[in-house]
Design a protein that fits this description.
Layout: E1 7-11, H1 24-32, E2 39-42, H2 48-58, E3 63-68, H3 70-82, E4 88-93, H4 99-103, H5 110-119, E5 123-132, E6 135-141, E7 144-148, H6 149-159, H7 165-177, E8 184-190, E9 193-199, E10 201-205, E11 209-210, E12 214-215, E13 227-232, H8 238-250, E14 259-264, E15 267-272, E16 277-281, E17 284-290, E18 292-304
Parallel strand pairs: 1-2, 1-3, 3-4
Antiparallel strand pairs: 5-6, 5-18, 7-10, 7-16, 8-9, 8-15, 10-13, 11-12, 13-14, 15-18, 16-17
Helix pairs in contact: 1-5, 2-3, 6-7
Length: 308
């Protein structure tokens, strides 16, 4: 990596089903007309942005930017968080869902996103750290983690080769609706509170929105020192899921007797009676058959440019 600027932009050209590559010239022009140099490097494979961000942080970049979707944002954040140094984190949302950008009020317009990075101070936000299955060594997340129906939808949406944006998630939801997952038999500990339940859905939210349109954590705030654990408190049949799904669009699901929420300020342990839990963090697959995961709260773990 040849360093010619104090700003590094890690761009995923395959984000938004390959549409992100069309934004490269716009990003370069946005920095150029503001007389700001930037080093831009492309990713070519999954998890490469973690390595690039870690290298960039260790090489002394003051600002590291993720240009892509929520997966790219997650990887770059992980690279920064793995470093002993603490560069500020910027986001240019050019992906499919851009869910965390929605929560952080980061504009999807390239010019406005670059303006935000260059003209605003970075502010501390909280992050989560999940251990389990493919994340045995830990995987940070800044938006949220999901278990059950939510990752089912996410995995299906990611499999579509030519369908993008909210449409991919809606079609994936309709597909998964035809194959409702069986409830997991769960033992869950949220800080010092223990819960036993059968459920098909648990969301651990730092941000508010996932899946391009679903307000999974309607009360979540990215700098309040808490993770919102939002979950179905009993098994749900198809008709109930349909009714609840409509509430997720507006973020009113916690008004339903079928949903509950707890705040976690330290740790969440989730254990399933069988090794079958599907898990994602920030839309990135962690497992399709986990028996246990732990989520830890990392308060003020990352400095982000965002509209407060």
């Amino acid at each position: 990596m040849k360093k010619t600027s104090n700003i590094l932009c890690i761009l995923n050209p395959n984000a938004s089903k390959g549409q992100a590559i069309t934004k490269v010239d716009k990003i370069k022009e946005s920095f150029r007309k503001r007389n700001q140099s930037v080093d831009i490097i492309f990713t070519s494979q999954r998890k490469q942005a973690i390595t690039l961000a870690l290298q960039g942080a260790d090489e002394g970049y003051d600002v590291i930017i993720a240009a892509g979707g929520d997966g790219t944002v997650n990887e770059v954040a992980n690279g920064i968080l793995k470093s002993d140094k603490s560069p500020s984190f910027g986001i240019i949302p050019i992906g499919r869902g851009n869910d965390f950008a929605y929560t952080a009020n980061i504009p999807c317009d390239v010019d406005k996103a670059v303006d935000l990075i260059l003209s605003s101070p970075a502010t501390d936000i909280d992050v989560g750290l999940l251990y389990g299955k493919d994340a045995a060594d830990g995987r940070f997340f800044i938006n949220g983690a999901g278990i059950g129906f939510e990752p089912e939808v996410n995995f299906k949406a990611s499999s579509y080769k030519h369908i993008n944006g909210v449409t991919s998630y809606l079609l994936a939801f309709l597909h998964c609706f035809c194959f409702i997952p069986k409830p997991y038999d769960i033992e869950m500990r949220v800080d010092d509170k223990n819960i036993n339940l059968k459920t098909q859905q648990i969301s651990i939210c730092n941000g508010r929105r996932m899946g391009g349109a679903f307000i999974m954590g309607p009360r979540a705030i990215i700098n309040d020192g808490k993770l919102d654990v939002v979950y179905a408190n009993r098994p749900l049949k198809r008709l109930k899921i349909t009714r609840l799904a409509l509430r997720f669009f507006s973020g009113t699901q916690l008004k339903s007797k079928y949903m509950d929420m707890l705040n976690a300020e330290s740790v969440v342990d989730i254990k399933s009676a069988r090794a079958e839990m599907k898990i994602h963090v920030d839309g990135e697959e962690i497992s399709r058959d986990a028996a246990f995961c732990r989520i830890e709260m990392v308060k003020k773990g990352l400095r982000l440019f965002y509209n407060r």
